[in-house]
Every structure is written in C-alpha cells, then in structure tokens.
Amino acid sequence: MTQTSTQTIGFIGLGQMGQGMAARLIESGHSLIVYNRSQDKCRALAEAGARVAQRPLETVSRGGIVVSMLADDAAVEAVFDDALLAQIGDGGIHLSMSTLGPATASRLAARHRAHGVAYVACPVFGRPDAARAGKLWLCLAGPTSARARLQPLLDAMGQGVHAFGEDPAAANVTKLAGNFLIASAIEAMGEAYSLAEKHGVDASAVHQLLTQTLFACPIYQNYGKAIVEQRFTPPGFTLRLGAKDMRLVQDAARAAEMPMPLASLLGDRFLRMLATGQGNIDWTGLAADQRQAAGLAGTSGHTA
Amino acid sequence: MTQTSTQTIGFIGLGQMGQGMAARLIESGHSLIVYNRSQDKCRALAEAGARVAQRPLETVSRGGIVVSMLADDAAVEAVFDDALLAQIGDGGIHLSMSTLGPATASRLAARHRAHGVAYVACPVFGRPDAARAGKLWLCLAGPTSARARLQPLLDAMGQGVHAFGEDPAAANVTKLAGNFLIASAIEAMGEAYSLAEKHGVDASAVHQLLTQTLFACPIYQNYGKAIVEQRFTPPGFTLRLGAKDMRLVQDAARAAEMPMPLASLLGDRFLRMLATGQGNIDWTGLAADQRQAAGLAGTSGHTA
Asked: Which residues of A fall within a CB distance of 8 Å from B295?
C-alpha cells in the first residue's frame, strides 16, 4: 500500500526502548534490518524475523529509511557519519527518535541536508512497556515532505503524534521540556511525601488524595506510587539517563542565556545520586536522596 | 433529618472562598449566622437569607457548630479566643477550613479540648468557583465523634472528603503538601515554557502536548494555560496567599528538621514577587518572574 510497508526499514540502537519499538514495527508488518553495537541485543528481534546487520551501513539502501534510538548525542553523531549519510543518500530519511539536545539536532540536520537526507526528529514519551505496545507519544519535527512515508511507522509505534514544524530542534526542545517537568514532579513529590512522613502522616494517603483530584494524571499516579513504595528497581528509565537529559536541559538553558533554577537544583540532585553509585535505579529514585537528607533513609525501601 | 439541617450554623470569615462556601451552605438548606471583620462582605449573604453577627460570639450558641475560613494562623488564633471557645462550650464543634500550619492546628486543638470543643481541621482544595459550586476537595482530620454532625455540611461544600485520622495537624500537613505540589508545578511550567520560548518554540503547542498526555490533569491544564497566556488577573488565589502557604511549608520543614530545597527556591521566588509589588496577581504569576529573569518580560502579558 505504502512504500514503507513494502520496503525494508533500518533500525539502529536496541536498548530497552529500541527493542520494544523495533519489535512493534515487525509485529505491524514492517521488514527490519537491525543493528546494535552489542550483537546479543539483536537476538530476540532476529527470532521475530528481523535481519541483523554487522555494520550501520548495512541497515539501509539508497533513498531508504533508517530509524535510530541511541543513548545520547555522541552516539548519534558518531554512527551517522558521512559514510552512512552518503549510503542513505538523496531522498532518504533518518527518523531520529533519541532524546538529543537542540543544538545537536540542528547540527545533524545540516549534515544530513548536505547529503540530500531528510533529518526528522521524533523523540518519544513513554516507558519500555509503552514502546512494546505501540503506545508512545511522538514529538515530531522536520521536513514535511518526509512525513507521508513515515506515517505507517509512526502509526505503529505511537498512540499519537504532536508535530512542531520544520525545524527538528523544536521537537527536541519540547521533549527536554517534558522530561524536565517529569523530573520536577519527582522532586516535588519526594519533598512533599517526606514532609508528610516526618510529621507522622501516611504518605500513601496523601498520594491517594492528590492523585485522585488535582493531580489525576499518569506521571503523578505512577511515579508517585513508586516513590511512596520506594520501588526503584527494575528501572523503567535509569537515573543515569535522567541525569543526561537534565544536562541537556541545562545546556539548552545556557545556550539560550537564561537561568532555570529548578533545573539547577535537579542537576545537583542527579549528580549526588551518580556520585553515590545510584545511577542504575529508576529516576524516581531521586526521592531516595531527599529521604536520606530528611533523615528518613533506611526505614524501608527497595533500592538495592 | 439531622441536627445540622435544623440548627443554625455559625460561619466566620467571608473572603472569596468563605463567601462561596457560605452561599453554598445556604443554598443547601442550612441556616447561617455569618461574621466578617469588614461588614460589607456580609451583604450578599444577608440577601440570600443569612443573619449577620456583629461579633464572633454571636455566631454560635452553646454546643453548636461554627465554621471558619480565615486568612491565616494569626487570625484563627485571635478570633477563637477563650471567650469564643467558652461560648461554643462542651459538645460544640469548630470546623476549621483555613490553610494553617500543623503546629498551629495542634495548639488550637489543645485549647479547644480544654473547653470541651471538638477541633476538626478541614482545609480545602479548589478555587472560589469550586467553593461556590460545592465542588471542593475536603481534607479532614479530627475527633471522629464529631464527624456525623458535620457530614451534611461536608456534603454541601465538597465533591469528596479524604480523612486523615484523629489528629487535626495531619490534614494541615496534607493540605500544605498539596499546595507545595501546585506551586512546584507552576515553577516547573514557568521554566519549561520559557525555555521553549527562548528557543523559538511555541509554548502553547508544548503545553498542548504535555497536558493531553503525561500531565492530563486540572493543575497542569488550567494553570499551564494561564502561564502560556500570561493571564494572572483576576486572581483565583493571590500570590500573597501562596507566599504565606510556602512560609508554612518551610516552617513545617524546619520544625521537622528536614531540608526542602525546592520549597526554599519557591520561597525566594515568592519573596521576589512580593518585593516587586506583585502580591495581588494570581500565584500562577510566579511564571512572570521566570520570564523576566529569562529576558522575556515585556513581550506580552496581562499582569497589570
């Protein structure tokens, strides 16, 4: 019916999110050639029918589509070098779904353009289970001309697309703004619930009241539950990745020459967690640092 | 049917919230004697059928019920002096709906007990329009024995009651935790949306995405809209009142000997707004201070 449903799609980067998204694409009838630096992450997808590439260059043929979901800015810039961009070539599309800084997105977009490749930024909101179920929220920006060919992929991976125009950086700024709001909500609940606990008030009762009324939305309900129960493993999104995103938020604020005092506070909170070796728990575990500071640490918890 | 529907209820404190709550009680069939320091606030209620008292002592007869919705801790402690408590007397109930500090609540509860009066804390969540419509969220704690007589009043004023046990202070801690979460959300949106704006991204599009997905709840939707549109008047809840609540949060944290870094940040933000004469706009106007700091002030706005 469409080009994308008959042609093979390249998929680079098979972390927790990438694996779920790639599996979902296969399930929706797309042919995939997948690549990941550590090959063992390819196994499940190979069993589901994906071909496995030995190098990024093998994931895409001239004018094709390649999707990436890599860990950070450096990984995307390293993988999408001139050789790969030349391979994708004129008329090709790179659907870049990682959370990147806006400056990186602009730099990548220019380099892609020089090779005739459309760079489409599409960072996502949602945890690995949402990725696997095709229930991500997609935050899209890039050349409109590329949109139609991408639609079947977007439909398979997301429950909704929000478009932010032609400039890819806009989608990345929006994604960073969203992750900043989430980290801020974790911080606020961490402080509020430890205040309740220190005053002898049942934090889970406070959580119930607030998330059934003013804050009846997924972030407060789900993340707040993890905070109250102190269940920070297994991680849906690691504290280390959250720290990276907060660095991107702070970099974006500095680039725009504006202060973000709450981002600064959160940046320090993340660094304390990394400094004390807690980078691999879920980022809701920021609340553990607050409990520790409040003298509540060690009374319960599942952060080990 | 119940005692409260046949006996007259005292109501002290007719600010924006108190007027709405009292009007709603009258509409629900309750007889009220109202008192407010400035008498002009009593006029609309008198027209609706309330009797107007010249002194707090006239609002309640022995063993009766008096409701209060006053501006701050000092006002409640001043009005509910030994003379008034003696007047209420054994078997009487004070339904105290103001946002107070937990230490004040405990002190008041003890003084009430000495006069045989049940002190029931019931701070509320909701803006004046919700008060007028009987759609408040009620946060209740105090002697269980008083609960049955209060139920018809609670039913008239609220769309739901969350109970926090026998100790009134617990309800006040919970209310402060909630207001702290709201102020934190305002701060987070203020920073996030100014980041978007400085990067040339339409803040209202970012707001749409986030409040239709992860943050699909009233606080983010309604307060975020005010922030994006910079509509901070007329105030639903003034910045000055928010500053008072943040002081109560910080006092409660100090009393419990625990840091709340985000509360400290917010406390300073509130003080900057008061210092620059902006105490009478809505507390979503905290975001105006962030825009100013980001060099975005004066480009639009309705804070005058």
From this structure: 257-258
